[in-house]
Amino acid sequence: MTLSPLISPVAVTAYQCVSAAGDDVEALYASLIANRSCLKPLTLFAIPFDTLVGEVTSLLPAIRSSLQAYDCRNARLALKALDQGGFRASVERAIESYGPARVGLILGTSTSGIYDSENAYARLHQDGVMPDDFYFTKVQTAQATAEFLRLELGLQGPCYAISTACSSSAKALAAAQRLLNSDCCDAVLVAGVDSLCRLTLRGFNSLQLISAEACRPMDAGRQGINIGEGAALILLEKPGAENVDRPRLLAVGESSDAHHMSAPHPDGIGAATAMAHALRLAGRDVSEVDYINLHATASTLNDLSEARAVSSLFVNPPPCSGVKGLFGHTLGAAGAVETVVSLLALERGFLPGTCGLREPDPECRFPVVAAPNLKVSPRLILSNAFGFGGNNASVLLEAA
Predict the structure, then answer these.
(1) d(Cα 391, Cα 265) in Å, to the nearest integer?
(2) Domain named Ketosynthase family 3 (KS3): which ranges (predicted)?
(3) Would you say residue 4 lies in a domain?
(4) Would 306 be classed as within a structural domain?
């Protein structure tokens, strides 16, 4: 049955990523092909339990003096991604083509500058006063890094942040597509940025979700998640003759099942709804999907819920895998980071593996890709990002 699309596709004209798997997309691609975990013991601060994390340990760039009020780890991660592989030049080209007022910016984040706030409050505890150079609204608030990027690039279009836990930057892609479809913008920079902090690690540990060893998504013996950090930047533009050779964002399906504050619906109802909605918006059938990048955090309940969601929607599920065993769960950045993974799979012709997988959970009634498959070139990919409170998003991408 042929379905009519309910939203127009947009072109993905540039993308970049910084994570524990490397400082740019070339390093990320090499890590995906090697399928070797980049998770290591935490060095940024001390915590009272054992785990591995996806920490970015390379040098982060300095914030220029005129924007020092925005200086925090989150902003520096975003700046590092911006200056990799010519991505800044792609944004500047869009600004020159359309004008700064026609280029928007939407950020997805969950931690934002909490790490730097923690450090500031430690100074308060020690000295009795907050540091003079700490600006809460320009560091910790969700929109802080969005404002920093807007000022750094000289953008004048719509600029805001979305914070819906681990689906944040996937939902930012949905919002960006709507800005383009409604003619509010000609180009939108989507950023997914999250940095490690004590609150997140201790919080997930209090929920008994943290693994002491490298996580094993969709594995029968999985023990929990590893937290990571990263920054992914994706430039979206209206489709035209000048970008016909670029991949397309077809649609983002969104749902909110609100089953529980931190646990997904056991049957994956919200996850299945998000995937089905992405396909319906794009006018595509389940049989057309070549690969699913699973959210697959390696927590017992989340992986089981997603497995049931896939099985309920797909009679003959396509190959699936989860990549968080490489660089950890990057939380609010995960939707954008793993959209970049999916774009690499589309453009370079491979299926990512599931790093850490030993024995697939028998509840996973679909083919789980253990090692990267370099003989398959997918054309249509779903990439899932599911957050606390049932905030679900599924990104549908198509090759050029």
Answers:
(1) 11
(2) 7-399
(3) no
(4) yes
Ordered strands of the 291-293 beta sheet: 159-162, 103-108, 187-194, 230-237, 10-19, 248-256, 391-398, 380-387, 291-293, 320-321
pLDDT digits (tens, 9 = 90+) for 63-117: 999 999 999 999 999 999 999 999 999 999 999 999 999 999 999 999 999 999 9
CATH number at residue 392: 3.40.47.10
Residues carrying an active site annotation: 166, 295, 329
Helices 114-127, 198-206: crossing angle, 10 deg rounding: 100
In a domain, 158, yes or no: yes
DSSP tally for the chain: helices H, then strands E: 12, 10
**Contact of 287 with 314, CB cutoff 8 Å:** no
Question: What tokens were used for 92?
Answer: 């500047």
Whether 291 has a pLDDT exceeding 80, the answer reads: yes
Per-residue pLDDT of 338-352, as tens digits, reads 999 999 999 999 999
> Is there a domain that residue 280 lies in?
yes
Closest CA to 258 of 124, 351, 165: 165
pLDDT score, position 221: 97
Q: What is the mean pLDDT of residues 115-136?
A: 95
Total domain count, the chain: 1
